[in-house]
């Protein structure tokens, strides 16, 4: 009975057009993500908890860093990744939202990420993909490209990133509803090896990295014929 209820709940959530990152591939190894709507007891993952498939709808929400509640599980895992190597995040497939940008951030935890409140971290952006072609209403977006790639997004860890423990934050921003943004941030814990002496930046905190009045967030794409779009947040640090 309980299992049937969970399946029904997940089906309803996905049917409503929401979701999140469900797994990662790092160095050819797959890491299961946190399973929302399932008790965190007994779950072991590199991903911080996210309790619901519903989006965050306020740019200044307290849970903007790593989704709600953004807590750890026990035991919490950390994936080792080499600087210059790739990491892929997989959303529930097919991801339903094709209008909006993709962003990926990282933040040095200054120690074991398991003990860190993600809202205290300084995030720098390592990847973004906004409007790729066409108009904001009918063009090709980063999120649309993600869907075409089997609802996955692959990024390269900057080669000059210093070794250490990092939070990686994948985010897609759905802007298909006028002036009602939908944020889907997800975080996972990494240990970076083989790095160098780069100086990542600029950095932002979440909440704080975005403004609710940002025209790239508070936007009605259907009333515009614009062919350019500025992705929210700081510029990309390529390392």
UniProtKB/TrEMBL annotation:
Record keywords: Carbohydrate metabolism, Cellulose degradation, Disulfide bond, Hydrolase, Polysaccharide degradation, Secreted, Signal
GO biological process: cellulose catabolic process
Record domain Auxiliary Activity family 9 catalytic: where: 18-229
Reaction equations catalysed: [(1->4)-beta-D-glucosyl]n+m + reduced acceptor + O2 = 4-dehydro-beta-D-glucosyl-[(1->4)-beta-D-glucosyl]n-1 + [(1->4)-beta-D-glucosyl]m + acceptor + H2O
The enzyme's E.C. designation: 1.14.99.56
Signal sequence interval, chain numbering: 1-19
Function of the protein: Lytic polysaccharide monooxygenase (LMPO) that depolymerizes crystalline and amorphous polysaccharides via the oxidation of scissile alpha- or beta-(1-4)-glycosidic bonds, yielding C1 and/or C4 oxidation products. Catalysis by LPMOs requires the reduction of the active-site copper from Cu(II) to Cu(I) by a reducing agent and H(2)O(2) or O(2) as a cosubstrate.
Principal location: secreted
Subcellular location, record wording: Secreted
Domain of life: Eukaryota
Protein name listed in UniProt: AA9 family lytic polysaccharide monooxygenase
InterPro entries: AA9, AA9_LPMO
PANTHER family in the cross-refs: GLYCOSYLHYDROLASE FAMILY 61-8 PROTEIN (PTHR33353:SF19), PUTATIVE (AFU_ORTHOLOGUE AFUA_1G12560)-RELATED (PTHR33353)
Free-text comment on this protein's domains from its UniProt entry: Has a modular structure: an endo-beta-1,4-glucanase catalytic module at the N-terminus, a linker rich in serines and threonines, and a C-terminal carbohydrate-binding module (CBM).
Organism this protein belongs to: Rickenella mellea
Assigned GO CC terms: extracellular region
One protein family per Pfam: AA9
Gene Ontology molecular functions: cellulase activity; cellulose binding
């Amino acid at each position: 009975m309980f299992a049937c209820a969970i399946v029904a709940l997940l089906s309803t959530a996905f049917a409503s057009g929401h979701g999140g990152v469900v797994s990662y591939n790092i160095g050819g190894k797959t890491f299961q993500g946190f399973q929302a709507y399932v008790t965190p007891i007994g779950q072991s993952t590199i991903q911080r908890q996210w309790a619901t498939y519903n989006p965050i709808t306020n740019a200044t929400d307290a849970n903007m860093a790593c989704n709600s509640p953004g807590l750890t599980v026990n035991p919490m895992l950390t994936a080792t990744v080499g600087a210059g190597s790739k990491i892929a995040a997989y959303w529930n497939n097919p991801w339903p939202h094709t209008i909006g940008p993709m962003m990926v951030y990282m933040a040095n935890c200054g120690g074991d990420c398991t003990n860190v409140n993600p809202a205290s971290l300084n995030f720098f952006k390592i990847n973004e993909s906004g409007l790729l072609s066409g108009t904001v209403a009918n063009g090709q977006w980063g999120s649309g490209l993600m869907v075409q790639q089997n609802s996955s997004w692959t990024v390269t860890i900057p080669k000059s990133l210093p070794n250490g423990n990092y939070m990686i934050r994948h985010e897609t921003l759905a802007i298909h509803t006028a002036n009602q943004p939908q944020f889907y941030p997800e975080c996972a814990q990494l240990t970076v090896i083989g790095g160098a002496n780069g100086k990542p930046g600029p950095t932002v905190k979440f909440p704080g990295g975005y403004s609710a009045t940002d025209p790239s967030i508070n936007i009605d794409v259907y009333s515009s014929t614009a062919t350019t779009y500025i992705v929210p947040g700081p510029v990309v640090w390529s390392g």
